[in-house]
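Dear H.,

Thanks for agreeing to be a second pair of eyes. The structure we're designing against is below in token form, covering all 629 positions.
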């Protein structure tokens, strides 16, 4: 089969997006490849298609567990075998998954970079027939990137574990410094670098400084059609804006990491199918959601960096039809962004203190390991140690950034189940235990043969609906089957989870170099300052500003952003004023003030400026205080 055949058969597309075909060809030629494709450019297909054309398995490194799970499920729905390993899975889940990658027909194994440090993982990978290493979100390997993850330094070890295997690194956003560091850290051949343009000709960028954001939102939505995303800074704000929109007869729902997994899935599905017009969300929404006909993305405030703004705004207009990305802000938003930044970089002494408190909270001795997730209530923890909730949150994020813990509020909402029995043995069990037969049949009907090959995500809620009895009873019966060895049932929770990613260390010796920490702080501060300059920009094409930020120089203005539209409008006004002035002067002689009075519908400064230009080029002249032809 050819790449185009795979594209058509599994994804239903008849042609590739720009650069996809060239990137795929480079990978098929077994060359290291670096692809920089903006949001919506179809990065995943650049490694998925060549991996499917070759024997063996593709290893996919990604830091985003929610996206990892989405991609695995999407591949499975297309009939492509894929698996994922992430912190929080129990040992049995991981063992079975890795065995399936060695002995089964799994084509894609997704995992976070932290997993590479595990000796067991390394030994299992050596036994796999690996055809490609894909490094997604490759900007995380660079300290100049907006989402730096030191654990990404481990990725280079994969090349030693499976030598003679080509690597493809992919990212949507990378400045010149970030690109150089990616190439250096992964030892890539720069000859095979492919970069798409950061310009989106159909996407109009605008910034509005407003007193009443809600009023402006309603105005924008009334002037555009189709679905929309509104990004807010806090969970509380998402709910308030969504409730208000519904009161204004605009169908909407709010979305954030604190909602139950089933609730989030339902909101996504309703929005994707058009039952809800607007999703009001925190930045937890959007990853892996490829809805092509989003017409407008509105930001209620200022992002902390251009990279995240570009990705979120880029969720509008992926169908290449006209779309809008609008920032609504007030002066207080700028002050708030700087204030949040200061809090997001707590003193290192405080970060170490929080690590020690966590170790005490979970009763972990120095050197002990624990890779499964703990239920973790941040507020309860903070209150127990008399700490500020937000300060604890930001300290946790720093510990996470340096690969010490993982704090997640969004990924542990799905249970998983595996049937270790042979079909015949399971059938015999059903005959002897008729009271459990109905549940087993429902499982097999809903999830099929996958249950026998590896841990499969299940929904107790959907099972209870199908069986027409309470969800608690379903869970109780599944637990009974697990206890009797009929199934392996990994029941998940919607509680936030915290995982120690390394053996518990002495808090005073955490591997967080002060120099590196301070450098990162300066880099992040520069990114916020750039965003402040972007919103305050009153001239120059916004698309050009974005292109320049990512190292792409262009003299061609987009023509559709607020700055370009205003410039065109001003140019049209100037021509109109010029035409009226020349008509009046053809009819008689007037002073400048008389002409300003006669053209009172235009600003006086515009009329006087046009008069000066006409005098400079000699189209009119001044004679005894009067303007003449």
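And this is the sequence the design step returned. I haven't edited it by hand at all.
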């Amino acid at each position: 089969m050819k790449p185009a055949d795979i594209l058509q058969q599994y994804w239903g597309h008849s042609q590739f997006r720009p650069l996809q075909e060239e990137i795929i060809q480079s990978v098929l030629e077994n060359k290291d490849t670096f692809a920089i494709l903006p949001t919506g450019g179809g990065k995943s297909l650049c490694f998925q298609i060549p991996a499917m054309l070759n024997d063996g398995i593709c290893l996919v490194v990604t830091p985003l567990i929610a996206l990892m799970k989405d991609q695995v499920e999407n591949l499975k729905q297309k009939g492509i075998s894929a698996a994922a390993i992430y912190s929080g899975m129990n040992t049995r889940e991981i063992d079975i998954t890795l065995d399936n990658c060695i002995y089964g027909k799994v084509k894609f194994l997704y995992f976070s970079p932290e997993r590479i440090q595990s000796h067991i993982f390394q030994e299992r990978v050596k036994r796999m027939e690996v055809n490609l290493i894909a490094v997604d979100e490759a900007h995380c390997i660079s300290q100049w990137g907006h989402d730096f993850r030191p654990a990404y330094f481990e990725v280079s070890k994969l090349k030693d574990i499976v030598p003679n295997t080509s690597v493809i690194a992919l990212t949507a956003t990378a400045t010149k410094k970030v690109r150089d560091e990616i190439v250096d850290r992964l030892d890539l051949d720069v000859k095979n670098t492919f970069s798409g343009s950061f310009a989106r000709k159909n996407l109009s960028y605008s910034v509005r400084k407003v007193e009443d954001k809600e009023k402006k939102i309603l105005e924008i939505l009334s002037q555009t059609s189709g679905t929309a995303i509104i990004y807010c800074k806090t969970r509380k704000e998402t709910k308030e804006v969504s409730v208000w929109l519904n009161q204004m007869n605009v169908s909407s729902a709010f979305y954030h990491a604190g909602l139950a997994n089933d609730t989030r899935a339902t909101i996504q599905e309703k929005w994707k199918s058009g039952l809800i017009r607007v999703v009001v969300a925190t930045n937890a929404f959007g990853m892996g959601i490829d809805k092509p006909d989003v017409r407008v993305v509105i930001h209620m405030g200022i992002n902390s960096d251009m990279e995240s703004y570009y990705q979120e705004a880029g969720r509008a207009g992926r169908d290449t039809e006209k779309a809008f990305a609008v920032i609504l802000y007030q002066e207080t938003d700028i002050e708030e962004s700087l204030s949040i930044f200061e809090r997001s970089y707590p003193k290192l002494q405080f970060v170490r203190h929080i690590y020690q408190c966590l170790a005490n909270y979970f009763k972990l001795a120095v050197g002990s390991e624990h890779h499964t997730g703990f239920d973790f209530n941040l507020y309860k923890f903070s209150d127990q140690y008399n700490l500020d909730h937000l300060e604890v949150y930001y300290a946790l994020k720093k510990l996470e950034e340096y690969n010490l813990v993982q704090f997640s509020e969004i990924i542990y909402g799905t249970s998983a189940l595996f049937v270790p029995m042979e079909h015949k043995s399971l059938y015999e069990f059903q005959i002897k235990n008729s009271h459990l037969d109905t549940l087993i049949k429902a499982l097999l009907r809903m999830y099929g043969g996958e249950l026998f090959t590896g841990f499969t995500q299940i929904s107790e809620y959907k099972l209870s609906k199908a069986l027409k009895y309470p969800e608690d009873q379903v869970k109780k019966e599944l637990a009974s089957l697990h206890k009797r060895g009929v199934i392996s049932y990994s029941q998940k929770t919607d509680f936030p989870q915290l995982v120690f990613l390394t053996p518990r260390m002495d808090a005073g010796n955490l591997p967080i170099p002060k120099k590196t920490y301070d450098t990162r702080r300066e880099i992040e501060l520069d990114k916020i300052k750039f965003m402040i300059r972007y919103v305050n920009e009153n001239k120059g094409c916004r698309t050009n500003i974005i292109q320049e930020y990512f190292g792409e120089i262009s003299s061609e203005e987009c023509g559709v952003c607020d700055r370009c539209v205003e410039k065109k409008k001003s140019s049209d006004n100037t021509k109109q004023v010029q035409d009226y002035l020349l008509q009046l002067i053809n009819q008689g002689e007037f002073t400048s003030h008389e002409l300003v009075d006669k053209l009172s519908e235009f600003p006086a400064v515009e009329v006087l400026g046009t008069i000066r230009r006409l005098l400079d080029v000699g189209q009119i002249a001044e004679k005894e205080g009067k303007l003449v032809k």
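Two observations from my side: The first strand starts at residue 33 and ends at 36. The mean pLDDT is 90.

Warmly,
E.
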